[in-house]
Amino acid sequence: MKRFSNVIGLLAAGCLTLGALRAQAPNTRTKAEIAAGWKLLFDGSTLRGWEPHAASATEPAATAWGVAAGAIFCDGDRRGWLGTADAFGDFNLKIEFRVGAETNSGVFLRSQKTGGIPAETGYELQIWDFRPTYKTGALVNHIEAEPTKILANQWNSYDVTADGDHFVVILNGKKVLDGRDSAHSSGVIGLQYNTGGGKVEFRSIKIKPIKR
Fold first, then answer.
1. pLDDT category, 157, cuts 50, 70, 90?
2. φ/ψ bin of 129: left (φ > 0), alpha (ψ from -120 to 50), beta (otherwise)
3. pTM of the model
4. What pLDDT score was predicted for residue 19?
5. b/e for 159-198, b at 16 or more Cβ within 10 A?
6. For residues 104 and 128, is the Cβ–Cβ distance under 8 A?
7. Are residue 2 and residue 88 in the same domain, yes or no?
8. Strand partners, 190
9. Based on the structure, what is the number of domains in the chain?
10. Could you tell me if 120 and 70 lie in one domain?
11. Per residue in 4-58, pLDDT tens?
12. Which domain holds residue 3?
């Protein structure tokens, strides 16, 4: 009887572990996130809800984006960006990214689909350790970040709060930016690809609008 109880205990523990793994699977929401109003911007298998753009009005059409192994990726010969179809104002954003050690990429916040490059019509949250200023974690040309480094060729996580003019950026669990800027109030979320730096990948892209 005792042995049978031990077996049941092991099976129960295994089920709990499996459940925990499933709860943490990429491109999913926990019950708590669903209850709190988090929405998935990437379904894990298609680019539904996303639109490709050229890097600027004077350049050719944006390079191709695709989906593989549960991630949005780009590894082409022309720089460009992928933006959400919908615009957002105040929000919490979670996103995971994987890049090489010297890959130049970024996440655009409150950017416009037209009218200029997204880093100027909105904010660029930097993913690049080698810019002289505004390295990884910074809002380029707006707010500097604490010195930090990307985990090269591993999944990194950004947790971003954009609440009015107040921005907080957490990279891999560490707060690297907390500042204010009022240049842009609403726009799309974007994923950047710059040529010459290697493949970029994004997954687990979730947003929770901040309601007043």
1. very high
2. alpha
3. 0.88
4. 44
5. bbbbeeeebebbbbeeebbeeeeeebeebbbbbbbbeebb
6. yes
7. no
8. 83, 108
9. 2
10. yes
11. 444 344 444 444 433 444 447 999 999 999 999 999 999 999 999 999 999 888 8
12. 1-27
